[in-house]
Amino acid sequence: xxxxxHLLIQFGGLLGVNEEWSCNLRMQIGNPEPGQIxxxxxxxxxxxNWIQANIEDIHGDIAAWHNGAANRNSAAAQLNYVKVxxxxxxxxxxxxxxxxxxxxxxxxxxxxxxxxxxASLCVSLWTDAxxxxxxRGRFYPPTGQVTYEDDGSVNATTVTAVLTSAQTLxxxxxxxxGIDTQNxxxxxxxxxxxxxPMRDVTQVAVGEILDKQSRxxxxxxxxxxxxxxxxxx
Length: 233
Known about the structure:
By secondary structure, this protein is of the alpha+beta class. It has one domain (about 5-215). Helices cover about 20% and strands about 25% of the residues. It is built from 3 helices and 11 strands, in the order ββαβββββααββββ. The chain has helices at about 45-65, 155-175, 180; strands at about 5-15, 20-30, 80-85, 100, 120, 125, 135-140, 185-190, 200, 205, 210. The strands form 3 sheets. It has a 6-stranded antiparallel sheet. Strands 7-6-10 form a 3-stranded antiparallel sheet, with helices on one face. It has a two-stranded antiparallel ribbon with strand order 5-11. β1 and β2 (about 20-30) form a beta hairpin. α1 (about 45-65) packs antiparallel against α2 (about 155-175). It starts with 5 loop residues before the first strand and ends in a 21-residue tail after the last strand.
């Protein structure tokens, strides 16, 4: 089992004082190859040069999404880094000597009031394949407080705003500098195969129910308050 070579975009940072959040997107660059579902990648050195030339722009796209008011990202979540690196067939970084990263601490924050750190209004990534390998993907933004309906679902206006923000993010990433020659686009990739399939993301979707990311609250220490109960003899 192996991946087709591609780029991994990882972004995240501090969530509150002790927690962290992170999201991953996968990208392919290079012009189409005959017979491929998704165009093949450039040579190694060309990909390295493209990353170095475009990582600041990618950071700018993600920062604009992260601190935009519409997407409901938590004000407790800082964007401290964006990493863009080549992924090899084994799922690991191809460059063993350098990690491409751009960002700073403190970084831009989300605009929604802080809520449950483990809550996320998941963004689903859809391809033209309705089922099977590399047909669907997702990422979990650090969602802050949202408005609920009586049935417990998130208000539809909020969902639409988050969806529109995610659509803009992917459109901007797909329109990175050099698009005329390098053809960047967000993809879903699977390592189930030799190599596994890779497909372009053609739609984004957001549902009305919050998901849970328990690893985003693993450092929280629960401090109990207690009071005695009077027992009458």
